[in-house]
Amino acid sequence: MSLLKFSRENLIRSSFRRFARSYSRSAITKRPHFPCVEAHAVRESQLRQTTFSSIPSSAQDTDDLESGPEPPYARPNPKSYHVYHDPAPLELTYASPLLSFDVAYETWGTLSSSKDNVILLHTGLSASSHAASTALNSAPGWWEKFIGPGKALDTNQYFIVCTNVIGGCYGSTGPSSIDPTTGTHYATNFPIISIFDMVRAQFRLLDHLGIDKLYASVGCSMGGMQSLAAGWLHPERVGKIVSISGTARSSPSAVAMRYAQRSVLMADPNWNYGFYYNGLPPHTGMKLARQIATITYRSGPEWDLRFGRQMRPILEQSPDMPRTPALCPDFLIETYLDHQGEQFCLKYDANSLIYISKAMDLFDLTASSLTANHLLSSSSTLSISASPSHKTSHSKSHPPPVNPAPHLTDLAEGMQPLAKIPTLVLGVQSDILFTVEQQREMADALRMAGNEQVSYYELGGVWGHDTFLLDVLNVGGAIRGFLS
Amino acid sequence: MSLLKFSRENLIRSSFRRFARSYSRSAITKRPHFPCVEAHAVRESQLRQTTFSSIPSSAQDTDDLESGPEPPYARPNPKSYHVYHDPAPLELTYASPLLSFDVAYETWGTLSSSKDNVILLHTGLSASSHAASTALNSAPGWWEKFIGPGKALDTNQYFIVCTNVIGGCYGSTGPSSIDPTTGTHYATNFPIISIFDMVRAQFRLLDHLGIDKLYASVGCSMGGMQSLAAGWLHPERVGKIVSISGTARSSPSAVAMRYAQRSVLMADPNWNYGFYYNGLPPHTGMKLARQIATITYRSGPEWDLRFGRQMRPILEQSPDMPRTPALCPDFLIETYLDHQGEQFCLKYDANSLIYISKAMDLFDLTASSLTANHLLSSSSTLSISASPSHKTSHSKSHPPPVNPAPHLTDLAEGMQPLAKIPTLVLGVQSDILFTVEQQREMADALRMAGNEQVSYYELGGVWGHDTFLLDVLNVGGAIRGFLS
């Protein structure tokens, strides 16, 4: 720690000197321009100006950062969604309970008098409860084309509930919320959360709404994890499970890709160990993290078709001269990533991204992991044998694998509570984040656990992980067929 | 610019205030620890201390940054390799010529009296000329197991020359070199370079050594690009071409992955628009960039086997309690990426990484790209038709594709100069950076161009792009067979 203190003192002095020198030198030395890098400073300046304009000038010199600008997520419009406040503690997998919590939610369709037509829809990492437009909020939602009369989630039949997950920043309790015990933002004093914790909060909302049993639990990406976790925690309360491009245990390559995002975000000095709520948000780190994320959401073949090696147009370019490349974006694929990062960097809370991304990494339904995390007592696990006699109880047309790997047997043991719930598993062959191997693993483990009602589809196409947002025909069709 | 200036002035003031406040607050508020983030400050402190200890204390307050610490690449040992200085200009694809240049190189084996046994070995992005140990430098090289008596590149038969590429930082002229016209480091005033420029410098060295014709041009990864470019620029001077996990035109997904690396590096305030040679290097940005690169060098299946979901051991962990996860690395895959980044971050020059990575993105042997960049005059292109009559001139056992895509015809036209040079194309099915589709494209285009001596191999295995560094048996065997 003494080394660190020394370093911080040095950083203070030398950062100031470096900026000062850099600034004075730039005024006298001609240097190349880097618009893609300067954009970070421009954005910061704009954020700061927004603040300045709303603060009396006398306060600016001392308080500009303490009363910092607020990105959009920090100005929620609670009239556009419902909020359920639960004053009782929420049990957490890895930490002491949250003493109380909020869950933001929206609904579509009509709850039947017997309350038997409820679909709980789970979101991916950064989505809000606004899955589709509502009377309260007419803006299109993130799954607009999949929700409505006659659509995949048919509002003529079903009452659909979607929440913002615990840990998020769109109305539910998360790191950007005020800790009632301190009166300040939780920041990184927020506890580590799990996918199970998100689902626990959702079921507290269902209890409040008087909904005993779900017709179905439906989710894509991280929502697929929640969908499985819902059936796992409450097998008797979940009628059907839909997992689209989800996984039953995060793979090391997915952990690697999310770790790279967290690393660039946490290295942004504005992140300030998570305590940025009274200052400027880590907008540069968020942009860089989103650029990396975008690479994992689509696929190379899509970019081949969509961008190829096309370059962005240069107005001043002469047709007689070779184009002079730059170190900033030249290719359309680069401007696309830049744009995706720029669009996202102030839309979502950085700490929410870190906490929820970590919850995804930690998700693992193998019996050994569940036992280690006290989600399963060691005495309650059922042994799944790979013996032929065990297999005869399974679906004849889709038998489980003949010689399952040890981790598959472990996963099948952990997924035992899902043995009686009809489950739709759908994956995409071009998905590099939730690979098709992970989809097969999930279906195999369910079948090994004795589930005879596993519907399994693989989609082709070039849209990668984002297929669930785009392919209304195939994804929507599979869901409609499975739910009906 | 006025906005930017305003922003920079604010940055200076507010960065100082933020650091000061952060420091004073941290002394009184208990906050979570983030060793993975604090490591950046610790590293910076150590770099600074190295400097302090070598400077008289009276100079420290004013000159610490101007006489900043030197990372290892800034202290080259010119006795461990040869340097060819060429006082004449070097033609460049995208910019005015370099007025003079250096090429660092090493050799293995013995040059025959007729100088007909020369293999020019090309490196990947960040490698030096030290491909294997020599009398001047006994440290193992980056291809140690492939070079030597009886090995893939057999020093009993061949005289092997390996250079540090133009743009690099291990003895050849690059952004960290002193610009003779200004007396200071080029930094980002260094011109944009191409793969062709690297090869042009290499052939100037060959001219100097009196070597007229290469027995073979051999390279892996970016070295494969150079290997093709050598044959393209000097078909009459290259006997055989070996491209291992290379490509004939960078794909948008590879551009995306390199763009993400450049972005995080250029966002590091220490990068300072490339002018960091008198200060601290952008070590944090380099670490983050290397973490991303590492993801592209290996494969998910390897990590499944090697790390799975294993977590790093925690000494203080009680077996009776669930492990408490952290926002810093928990999984072995995370500590692996962290370690890879940490090992690399001071070994290589950040500007070299940016320039050479860009050169890889720009590499494109399609006729349309070569023409646009004035590497090919529009009148000199030969039209490759996809008609059956054209195809009859090709290898019968491996005919070119029946209905080639337009880009493939374009590529075949561009690769026309390689039609007579026997070429080995080897790729790896688990490579996500230079995908197997790119290898097939290269082989198809060569065959469409009329090359009847294309040897083509695909390797399985889980090592991804790094296979060329690891698989001595298969990669080495294919090269030995092809060269003999």
TrEMBL record, chains A, B:
Transmembrane segments: none annotated. GO terms for molecular function: homoserine O-acetyltransferase activity; serine O-acetyltransferase activity. GO terms for biological process: cysteine biosynthetic process from serine; homoserine metabolic process; methionine biosynthetic process. GO terms for cellular component: mitochondrion. It holds the Pfam family Abhydrolase_1. The active site is at 221 (nucleophile), 431, 465. Residues 50-60 have a biased composition (Polar residues). Residues 50-80, 386-408 are annotated as: Disordered. Gene3D superfamilies: alpha/beta hydrolase. Residues 118-446 form the AB hydrolase-1 domain. Belongs to the AB hydrolase superfamily. MetX family. This is Homoserine O-acetyltransferase. It comes from Lentinula aciculospora.
